[in-house]
Amino acid sequence: MTPLSPTTPASDGRAGRALATLAGLSAELSSARSLETSIERILETLRTTLESQECALWMHTPQGLRRAWGSGLGHFTEAQVRAALTSADDAGAPAELRVVPIVLGPRRLGALALRLERVPEPEEELLLQALANVLAPELAHAERSRQLEVEVASRTMEIERGRRFTEKIIDSLPLGLYVIDREFRIQSWNRKRETGMQGVQREEAIGRTIFEILHRQPSEMLRREFEDVFSTGRMQEYQMESISSGEARTYRITKIPMRLGDGPVTHVITIGEDVTDWREAQERFSQAEKLAAIGQLAAGVMHEINNPLATIAACAESLGYRIEDLERSGVTLAPETHDFLGIIDNEVVRCKQIVDGLLEFSRPKQPRKERVNVNEVVERTLFLLKHHVRFKKLTVETSLDPLMGRVPHANAEQLVQVFMALLLNAMDAMGDRGLVRIVSRVGATPAEGAVVEVIDMGHGIARSEIGKIFEPFYTTKGPGKGTGLGLSICYGIVQEHGGRVEVESVLGQGSTFRVILPVVES
């Protein structure tokens, strides 16, 4: 071994101690402890060995020299350490400061900085330089590791931000959305799926099979639907009815195939959208089209029908006079003769009512319109109906909101016709006994500001028939008891006033007809 100093007993002892110290410090770096812990222990050992007040490891960083680790009091400044590193004669650095640079090739990694009260021995100088050489690769490796950690952390944060942003987009959709894999296990479940009567928390759904979560739906049906998408790769779309929220709602369900690569379908995205309002709007639009078509038809044939009806009525009237003359002259006629004439007359009158209704419907008059108080219209309608024999047998309750505004550009006579038709329908639904409630209230917006409900406790309307009741000539009443035009005409009048008619009904419990009209401020 090359001696560290002249071979005297004292120098041999100091060299041996230096070598032993270096070996111990190197062993510390090779231990299983973290680099930070090892460097702290090395600095403490070095400070004790060299009898220094301070021993610190300074690192070059983008922000300048920084004291990374230290043992003892930290009195030196960055400027002092930098001056000691850059000046050959240590100009500007304190006399007690001893700085050993830590360099790996062309890279300056940092420096060992010590506060010494004495001049270090040559062996101690060699110890410091050897320690700097040993620390250099360790610090370079640690620096690369930290840079890699920073990069990984940055990339991880970027990926996490992207994931949260995508998740936020999916959660903000007004749609229920979930994704399953080929094992039918849920991989994604947006927040919309957490709301409602059947809402399930995302944490509860992820990882479980769809059959465990949607247990109210037949599992075999669900399995067939998903397997069809997995096998064919075709999107499925259908509508379903649900009353889980307490009211009948219509949902459009779309199942979309998803591939992670170029291979077969790996996942299925299911989207559920509440289309109840859209469907009702479509039905109203379809109803308006039907009414317009009926109006055009009526306009083309009403006069042709009126002419033969007038001829039949005139002939029946002439026959009646002739029969009276024959009876006065002593001729005996069959007893059913008068019955036949009565039937002819009644049927002619009924046909004329149908034609007149069509005439009003297809070519409505342009009545004078003004601001109308809907409550006053309701009260006027009840006044007209109080003389009706069957209506007198019903119990009528009213709850009219006095704060409701007036309907602009309205015709009171037409609105009376609407409410009278609804009240007579309620009477027919309940027979000779029952309770009818009439409620008016202020709506949520001026466009839907006046809401009037006619509520009966009658036999109700089947859901399959609700969509048809506003169609011309459709009636659930027996033969000879209705023309099927009343609700159609009501619908047309309310629509002309800028409003709409809604109906809710449960078989055996009754129906609610709701007239919604725009208002202006009182």
CATH-derived topology of the largest domain = Heat Shock Protein 90
Beta-strand residue fraction: 15-25%
Please give the order of strands in the largest beta sheet.
6-5-9-8-7
Q: Kindly provide the name of the CATH class of the largest domain.
A: Alpha Beta
Question: Which architecture of the largest domain would the CATH scheme give at its second level?
Answer: 2-Layer Sandwich
Distance between the termini: 110 Å
Summarize the structure.
With 522 residues, this protein is of the alpha+beta class. The protein has helices spanning 9-30, 35-49, 78-86, 122-172, 202-205, 210-213, 219-232, 276-328, 336-362, 374-385, 412-430, 463-466, 486-496, and strands at residues 54-61, 64-72, 97-104, 107-115, 176-181, 186-189, 236-242, 249-258, 267-274, 370-372, 395-400, 407-410, 435-442, 450-456, 500-506, 510-517.
How are the elements arranged and paired?
Blueprint: H1 9-30, H2 35-49, E1 54-61, E2 64-72, H3 78-86, E3 97-104, E4 107-115, H4 122-172, E5 176-181, E6 186-189, H5 202-205, H6 210-213, H7 219-232, E7 236-242, E8 249-258, E9 267-274, H8 276-328, H9 336-362, E10 370-372, H10 374-385, E11 395-400, E12 407-410, H11 412-430, E13 435-442, E14 450-456, H12 463-466, H13 486-496, E15 500-506, E16 510-517
Parallel strand pairs: 11-13
Antiparallel strand pairs: 1-2, 1-4, 3-4, 5-6, 5-9, 7-8, 8-9, 10-12, 13-14, 14-16, 15-16
Helix pairs in contact: 1-2, 1-4, 8-9, 10-11, 11-13
